[in-house]
Design goal:
Number of strands: 16
Number of helices: 16
Largest sheet: 8 strands, mixed
Strand order of the largest sheet: 1-5-6-11-10-9-7-8
Shape: elongated
Structural class: alpha+beta
Helix content: 25-40%
Distance between the termini: 44 Å
Length: 420
């Protein structure tokens, strides 16, 4: 046994459990792929300032949780703690916004890293699927992304999730609210670090999960009471479009996402079966992020859904995904000549688009049939010297137990016909 273990707060994905993660990623990305979103992949690490500027230096992510390091060449980098800043950086670097057809619609999937206290549903290495629509200010775009996320979750069989919705205003109305909130927070019994945060970005305090802080925030002023007419109209249109699509949501006037770049629409997907780590995904509009990282004004909106949290939500609801067997045909050879012939047939089956595997290691018939059962294959092909002398192999249906002799030369066609 190896003396090495996965780092604390991380996990390995291994079969058969890993198939569930692949199925979740596929289900989340499927609605995006049919809605004009193209795939983007960015490096696992970036310039540390990309996140300090974009995510916000006052956030826990940047100040406490980011894995930052200096390379031998003196570059200061960080493992990506989230995907939006990286995707927007990539889009700007490739000048995608200059090629017309705004918004630029992108989706991505990958691992992200935060130094947090590990617990169920919260890891230091976690997986997300995300989507970003860059370069357009349109409530229909906000609604589209919420609807697509809802569609993805429902396609997996999830039912007990809730969508929380709020508006964070914009540069016109948020400063007035910021001042009112800071005045309120200064009158509370808060620790020094929280008071410092209140001066830098008071909305972060609203996102504080500590019960003693939340108790004092009961009478905090609400941003919805300070929204300008333009933000009110924008938010009402988002709400109307989602409602018309039959997507149920809850207005949450205290919802504040944990990143500094959000403006106007913000939303979160929560599942009450996950305990304290109830958020399974979320996102919102970030109209000023491009300028924060040195780009032009590009109003944008996006979300990220946690694959890890989604898997836990499925388990909480007792939802079993319909994951097909990875192998359709398993070949068992008895004798060296049969090994050569069946190995060739396995290759032919694969080239014909049939998932096929082979009993490796020179095991006997009993051991090889155990391998066939474990593989989950629908059919097993068995052949020995006598079979080959007659020009046939034995094709066994593992569900019904029925077995028939099939001509060696006609095996591929026979299997494809039975699987059709």
């Amino acid at each position: 046994m190896s003396t090495f273990k996965a780092p604390k707060g991380t996990y390995d994905l291994i079969p058969p459990f890993s198939a569930k993660y692949l199925a979740v990623r596929e289900a989340i990305s499927a609605p995006l792929r049919k809605s004009g979103y193209g795939y983007v992949e960015t490096p696992g690490f970036e310039d540390v300032n990309l996140f300090a500027r974009g995510v916000g230096e006052s956030t826990d992510i940047v100040s406490k949780e980011m894995y930052a390091f200096e390379t031998k060449g003196g570059d200061k980098l960080a493992l990506r703690p989230e995907g939006t800043a990286s995707v927007l950086r990539a889009a700007l670097e490739a000048s995608l916004h200059k090629q017309g057809n705004l918004p630029v619609k992108l989706w991505y999937s990958g691992s992200y890293y935060r130094y947090e206290r590990p617990q169920k549903g919260r890891y230091r290495h976690f997986s997300q699927v995300g989507a970003e629509a860059i370069g357009a200010e349109d409530p229909a775009l906000d609604a589209e992304l919420i609807i697509l996320a809802d569609e993805a979750y429902r396609s997996l069989g999830l039912r007990n999730f809730r969508i929380l919705l709020n508006s964070l205003g914009d540069k016109e109305c948020r400063p007035v609210y910021r001042e009112a909130l800071q005045t309120f927070l200064r009158g509370l019994d808060l620790d020094e670090e929280t008071l410092r945060r209140a001066e830098i970005n008071p909305l972060r305090v609203l996102d504080d999960k500590r019960s003693d802080v939340q108790k004092q925030l009961v009478d905090a002023p609400l941003l919805r009471d300070y929204l300008c007419d333009a933000c009110k109209a924008y938010h009402e249109e988002v709400r109307a479009l989602i409602t018309a699509a039959g997507v149920v949501f809850e207005d949450d006037p205290k919802l504040v996402r944990g990143l500094d770049y959000y403006t106007r629409t913000t939303f979160e997907f929560v599942h009450d079966g996950l305990g304290s780590q109830s958020a399974v995904g979320g996102g919102g509009r970030y109209d000023g992020l491009s300028e924060m990282i040195g780009g032009p004004a590009l109003p944008s909106v996006g979300w990220a859904l946690g694959v890890d949290r989604t898997v836990l939500a499925l388990e909480a609801e007792g939802v079993e995904l319909d994951i097909p067997a990875t192998t359709s045909v398993f070949a068992v050879a008895i004798g060296e000549e049969a090994r050569r012939v069946l190995f060739g047939k396995v290759t032919e089956l694969r080239r014909a688009g049939v998932a096929a595997d082979f009993s490796f290691g020179g095991k006997g018939l009993k051991g090889s049939m155990k391998d066939a059962n474990r593989s989950g294959a629908r059919f097993t092909v068995v052949a020995g010297e006598r079979d080959l002398a007659e020009g046939v192999v034995q094709l066994k249906d593992m569900e019904s137990g029925e077995q028939q002799a099939v001509a060696v030369d006609g095996l591929v066609e026979a299997v494809r016909a039975k699987l059709a």
